[in-house]
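User: I've been going back and forth on whether these two constructs are worth ordering. Before I decide, could you fold them both?

Assistant: Sure. I'll take them in the order you sent them. The first construct and its structure tokens:
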Amino acid sequence: VMREILKDIFVNEVNLKMKDPPFLNLIVVKASPRSLLFDTGVTKVVSESCAQALYDMLESLGIEIKDLDCFISHAHPDHIGLAKELSEKGATIYANADEMKAWDSLVYYQVADEKKRERLFQNVGLERKKLPVVYEKMSETAMREFFNMPFANFEFTPIRPGDMLSYGEYHFQVVSLSGHTKYQMGLMDEEKKVIFCADHIMQRIVPIVGAIDDGENALEGYFQTMRFLKEKCRGFLFIPCHGEEFRDLEIEADRIVNHYLSKCQLMIDLLRKKGEKMTIRDIGTTIYGRDREHPDMKKFSSCLLIWAKTYACLLYMRNLGFVLEEEVDGVRYWFYNKNDNGTK
């Protein structure tokens, strides 16, 4: 059901009739001469209901696609799915050039490529030679689940944090929302006290803050962005791409930050107690309460995200000096830093 949550700002929560994610918000700002769509949902191949809901929404609001601007917050498949189709129909697409350059480094795209998938599996400790059955079954699952991934192959107009976009009485500043992806962006209107926050912060959900790149301190970037929001956006209406809008920023921000800090502490305690080197996969399955083999195949997508979240936590703690790592034959092993004095 489409709702007008602020003057000329409409949100339609779409049931995608799929598992992950089950719902997403189509967010439209109606204005003249041009209107705004914040992110573009999933492809028709993934969910017919999303495209139908979007076109019905635009028709109901009297918005022609040639008069539509689409702002891409980040390159995950549930945010760029219809971008190419809308662009070909005459819409203008705005996106961060850095995000578009890095789109194929996201974990979903990594497992869709055979060579990159092999490196990723090796990195986390899933070695073909040691676990050939698990390796092959997970590779088969990767190809099946991510065969129809939408790629960032659409024309777009570059836009960066600090730029402005105006629609009617709304004047949005593009802001960095680093963490969920390195170059994720949102739109903030300081006067109207409203922010489109993409997947950075949501009610009752812990956003995925993951890493597969050694040089990417995703969790620290996420914490920094959360501090920025707490300083700049008190009392704002937050409109996420999943779930309901909310104003309780501090409650939700503290809940999410504390979740990640608690996972970090559990990993430190695990490595200290074990007193031995462990792989990302071993640490992740232990901390998140998963059996090491069968659910890896039954719940492949969630395992990918657990690996990425575990890696992000380990990189964050490595930079603080709590843990150390060692690479052996392409496998990363992590262990507790016995020389840490606990003062960092």
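The second construct, handled the same way:
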Amino acid sequence: MSPTLLFTLSLAVTLSASIGVGLMRRFALHRAILDIPNERSSHITPTPRGGGLPVVVVILATLLFTRGQFPGEDQLGLVMMTGGALIAMIGWLDDCYHLSAALRFSCQLLVSVLAVALLSPADAGWLEKAFQVLIVAWSINFYNFMDGIDGLAGTEAVMAGFAGVGLAWHFGSGFILLPLLLASSALGFLWWN
């Protein structure tokens, strides 16, 4: 895909995510779906929750729209769509109903097992796969921890995504769509953060 088309796609994803987060913010304020500051929060006033949901929806919609145009990324995209949708769903339910840590971690572990089962090399041993499951689950939880600190998770996603785009472009790996979607959608989210 040409740089112009990638830039256009990035811009469309950024704008879509920003509009979606803005609408979700309005909805959350109206329904009082708020994050009340605690000792780990960097904000001092109640903050609307659920801003990650439109980001995930935009990424998933774009992955569906571009399916087949980035053949090397289709399987990884499918795993991301499935796992991302499950994590987004449990996150949204937690935002609304404050789920137990055990239930959230069980879902995260399930998604981690799914990701490793679908993406790990076939010749990987069970110990290696168990370690991969723990790393994926740990990464999800680490990212959730950063989410309570204003702008940190979004900024990290933008930086990691654009770094991935740069590396993919430099090495010609072909895995450019997924990091581009991560960076662009997170950039749209940061407008509101």
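Notes on the second construct follow. DSSP finds seven helices and two strands in the chain. Residues 3-31 form the longest helix (29 residues).
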